[in-house]
Amino acid sequence: xxxxxxxxxxxxxxxxxxxxxxxxxxxxxxxxxxxxxxxxxxxxxxxxxxxxxxxxxxxxxxxxxxxxxxxxxxxxxxxxxxxxxxxxxxxxxxxxxxxxxxxxxxxxxxxxxxxxxxxxxxxxxxxxxxxxxxxxxxxxxxxxxxxxxxxxxxxxxxxxxxxxxxxxxxxxxxxxxxxxxxxxxxxxxxxxxxxxxxxxxxxxxxxxxxxxxxxxxxxxxxxxxxxxxxxxxxxxxxxxxxxxxxxxxxxxxxxxxxxxxxxxxxxxxxxxxxxxxxxxxxxxxxxxxxxxxxxxxxxxxxxxxxxxxxxxxxxxxxxxxxxxxxxxxxxxxxxxxxxxxxxxxxxxxxxxxxxxxxxxxxxxxxxxxxxxxxxxxxxxxx
Length: 382
Ligand code: PMP
Ligand code: GLN
Hints:
By secondary structure, the protein is of the alpha/beta class. The chain contains 13 helices and 15 strands.
């Protein structure tokens, strides 16, 4: 393995899920729902499968899916041309990797917000660029953007800012004021923004998802990325997309076409159906996830964790120190065997494990009885 990929030999999700299976643990580690998406979407996939949509779809994605993505994006008041400004990808993961490979190279720096989704560091490395991390800071009861830290991280070599909101693993939803700062920095220093918006529909209470592309000066310098997995409970389908200006989409397409070329032929019309007709279903999912968040948060608090607030995504972070543990990483490796629950240590998503070592991430996109069983088991830690 080449040196630049040596830190990335396995993912925490693969390891933790394997450990959970080995110990028959309740898996609140890897984030995936345990119920299916909307029946209309599944029917559309079945119809496409039996209707002959089983060969290569067009390179940029099926036209009806690109048109549906354009209509969906309009809900934020932003227009994209379905032919030149939208590209369908193999999940958000490929969209992020292809964007970095197409737009950054050796000598470039990419600013990444820490903690960061694990594929970001590997994707920056595959592009040959360097990541520069800026940590979130705990302020006013939430994990907030470190505005001064972000300003200080911009150098003459900065090419792009990769930003994820709603944010995995902290559940932060960046505010308008925070995003204004990101946008102003991008404009001032002529940077590209790559936004990971896969949890765009999963925001709670009065939080609102604000796409960075809608901020002044950002439309044509933002590569906006999302995917169907989290919105419609189909994480295994791996249908994602990029919305950006024609030149940026053309660049990402140049990389994407030689990574997978295309994917998910019969799933693409089903996702088009979902974007057009199942957003009310996703709205119900959002409401039910908010209740699950409250259920797991209350259970974790009863079990002795210090729970951090979550405004979006389906993750909760909890501090293990009140239970007498110092290192959530060590605890995470013992938890499946010790009490039969799997969770993910937040420090694996960082370059500063010491600073983040007290937090565990739990996924609450599970049936209520699964959440309750996990809580019952976790209470044995006390
Ligand atoms: N970004 C974030 C922040 C995620 O949590 C995930 C994982 N679910 C992805 C990207 C990957 O999305 P996809 O499955 O569409 O590739
Ligand atoms: N996005 C999911 C998570 O953060 C898992 C994705 C994966 O397994 N690679 O848990």
